[in-house]
Amino acid sequence: MAKTDGPTRDEILRFVAESPGRVGKREIARAFGVKGGERIQLKNLLTEMAEEGLLAKTGKHIGMPGKLPRVTLLVVTGRNDDGDLVAEPTQWDDDDGAKPKVTLVGKGPAPAIGDRLLARISQDADERPLGRVIKVIERRPATTLAVLERFGDKPQLTPITKKERDVYFLDPADVKDVASNTLVKIEVDRRRSARIVEVVGPVGSEQAVSLIAIHAHGIPDRFPERVLVEAEAATPARLESGREDWRDVPFVTIDPADAKDHDDAVFAEPDPHNEGGAIVTVAIADVAHYVTTGSAMDEEARLRGNSTYFPDRVVPMLPERISNDLCSLREGEARAAMAIRMVFAADGRKQRHSVHRILMRSARRLSYQEAQTIADGKASDISGQIQDLWNAYAILKRGRQSREPMELDLPERKILLTPEGEVLRVVVPERLDAHKLIEEFMIQANVAASETCEAKRIPLLYRIHDAPGLDKIDALREFLATLEIRLARGTRMRPSHFNDILSRVEGTPNAQLVNEVILRSQSQAEYSPDNLGHFGLNLRRYAHFTSPIRRYADLIVHRALIRAEGLGEDGLTDDEIASLTVIGEEISATERRSMLAERDTIDRLIAGWLADKVGATFEGRIAGVTKSGLFVKLAESGGDGFIPISMLANEYMIYDEDAHELVGETSGVTYRLGDRVTVRLMEAAPISGALRFEIEDHEATAAPKKRARRPMRPVRRNSRPSFKRGKR
Asked: How far does CA 47 lie from the centroid of its chain?
């Protein structure tokens, strides 16, 4: 790289290493006085250093690879052999490394296991990380879950989360009526003594399964009394100064048939001034009116970050008085809302939009199925509202097709429960045009919201999705080569490139496999005040605006719009603007926490459902290949299980990471990602959600192209089968 007047590599490394938190290109440029055209050279230099492994880049953030920032947000996970508390960072950008264990030292605020805290990071003589507590951000809940087991006449409480190593012993007289293997809720004081406060039920019950996930992942599931009192005191919004009266606009809500809240409504009409165009209005419940900055509800909503959804329950971000009542756009009832009115040309391009704070009244409540039936002409639509919506959707589809977002085909399964809470069956819900209509309307409203704030120079939280990293693209290229699909080196990947690959395999035996591998090549979406755009949707700016009752990010965007458009005194505050980076990191973490809890619950429910089917055979596909064995996804239920390498063949197995396959050294038998398999269920563990299979039959996908590969790692057959789930 040509010499510039900017900083050298050594100067950049020293600056990043000594900075108290994360930095980005902007901070580096400011520190070294880089301006104008030199910024491009600085960007190129930082990219080179990241590719060489000298720096770690996550979005616009830059850090030292494998190193913690000087001040880090941690969660206390347990104690070490010396009895000291140990914590992990809530975020860790090194995909290839385990989270570092930080030993807490000093005489600062006293945390407990499960607490989230800010700590100043240093190192001991052996370069192991130490953390000095600055502030405890969140105290662990006063209660947790444990399994009561009996060993002879001695009852014992074992916490359900692996991060808690303590075992509590109880007086037999206190639990004489509680059976062994019962899930109980316990109250733990700061001295580590416990008492049972609730008997939940057998550990395999569906109620117990979701509660295990809630407590294992530290999801707050009880609202503090002050939050409930504040929510109950809220009164319906009126047509106060600055709020427009849109109660005569015939909005429609379209939601799942079993939805209890309705936070978005839509309306469309032809554009009288633009032939073939349409005007689309999206109205979203005005949560900011009820949940104001710094209030008890606001603090709790930020702590939760989002609602968490399980097959048998929802852990909401906001109390029911807000989410299911005052902010539910019920048919025929006046409700406060934020509305974005968008004008589209006939080719689907948005010409302009405006933001309004309104009082509205939903004219109709429809399920997705009902809306689809009307659109298909199988039911009457007296007012023509649904037809106007479909006409507008046809216009927006033209814009979507021109934009070319990534179109992955990965249907999601849904667990249906009986009234008693038992698994009835697992289904793949039909994907209707009604779903796609609402999705596209919401995407356009999200774009308009971000554009409004940006135009008025009001900071906000973007929903960012970075382009895939070079290492993941290289791995994808190697894999596609085995299918004789060429991906040229140096190609700047766009969503259209991925769509082209997907179209080439559509309808072939490798279609699902390629969809899965492309998904794994993508970066993870997150929230940040630094706009990187949304790669998957192929949008330059994007922010979540449409679900403020269940996502804190959307509430922040509502407040930003109120400030940008001068729509009230309850807009985004200066303090919130200064904290946007931290808020973005926190709610990105809570989102991942909910996703893990939801996935764990599904795993446990499926394992419990299959527990009495040990010995039965099932059809499935290989969903993951590791040096330890194979992960298999069952076709009917979507259940995930593991086949240890010892159960595959009595020979050395060679692991080819690029081709996602295990190959028998002698026989040449090949197990490859995407292969169809028939497996026998050998073991099901409902508490952990683990399934173990063995191969009954194996149907390979299309034979891979023979090519020269780098030396592959032989994996010795393990003589003792292991029942470890491993990482995927």
From this structure: 27
| Nearest to 357, CA basis, from 370, 340, 343, 372 | 340
In angstroms, the Cα distances linking 51 to 56, 131, 463, 466 are 9, 30, 25, 16
Strand-pairing partners, residue 78, are: 86
- N-terminal to C-terminal alpha carbon distance within the chain: 38
Write the CB contacts of 324 (distance below 8 Å, at least 6 apart in sequence).
260, 261
Nearest C-alpha neighbor of 138 from the set 689, 586, 632, 661: 586
- Report the C-alpha gap between 77 and 86 in whole angstroms: 6
Contact (Cβ atoms closer than 8 angstroms) between residue 251 and residue 337: no
pLDDT digits (tens, 9 = 90+) for 421-430: 778 888 888 8
Q: Return the CATH number of 71-138, one of 3.10.580.10, 3.30.565.10, 2.60.34.10, 2.40.50.140.
A: 2.40.50.140
Q: What integer pLDDT is reported at residue 5 of this predicted model? A: 66
Instruction: Indicate whether 192 pLDDT > 80.
Output: no
Amino acid 47 reads: T
Q: How far apart are CA 447 and CA 467, in angstroms?
A: 19
Residue 719 has pLDDT above 60, yes or no: no
Does domain 143-203 sit in CATH 2.40.50? yes
Instruction: Name, in order, each residue with C-beta under 8 angstroms of 665's C-beta and a sequence gap of 6 or more.
Output: 651, 652, 653, 654, 714
Whether the pLDDT of residue 436 is over 90: the answer is yes
| H helix runs in 221-261, sequence order | 225-233
Rounded Cα gap, residues 480 and 486, in angstroms: 7
**β-pairing verdict for 334-344 and 350-367:** antiparallel
DSSP state of 8: -
* Mean pLDDT for all residues in the chain: 85
Compute the distance between CA of residue 292 and CA of residue 584 in angstroms, rounded to an integer.
18
Highest mean pLDDT among 127-136, 206-215, 673-682: 673-682
> Which residue is listed with tokens 């396959």?
661
Rounded to the nearest 5 degrees, what angle is found at the Cα of 256, between the Cα atoms of 395 and 344? Answer: 15
Rounded Cα gap, residues 321 and 319, in angstroms: 5
Distance CA 568, CA 552 (A): 19
Task: Residue 234: count other Cβ atoms within 10 Å of its Cβ.
Answer: 17
What is the rounded CA–CA span in Å between residue 438 and residue 283? 12
332-341, 409-418, 538-547, 562-571, range with the lowest pLDDT: 409-418
CATH class of 614-715: mainly beta
Task: Specify which residues 398 forms β-bridges with.
Answer: none
Q: Domain spans of the chain?
A: 9-63, 71-138, 143-203, 231-461+539-595, 467-522, 614-715
pLDDT at residue 349 is higher than 90: yes
> Do residues 190 and 112 make contact, with C-beta atoms less than 8 angstroms apart?
yes
Structure tokens at 406: 């990534």
Reference 48, options 94, 95, 2; nearest CA is: 2
pLDDT at 622 over 80: yes
Query: At which residue do the structure tokens 């006063």 appear?
Result: 142
pLDDT category at 561 given cuts 50, 70, 90 is very high
**Is this structure's pTM higher than 0.85?**
no
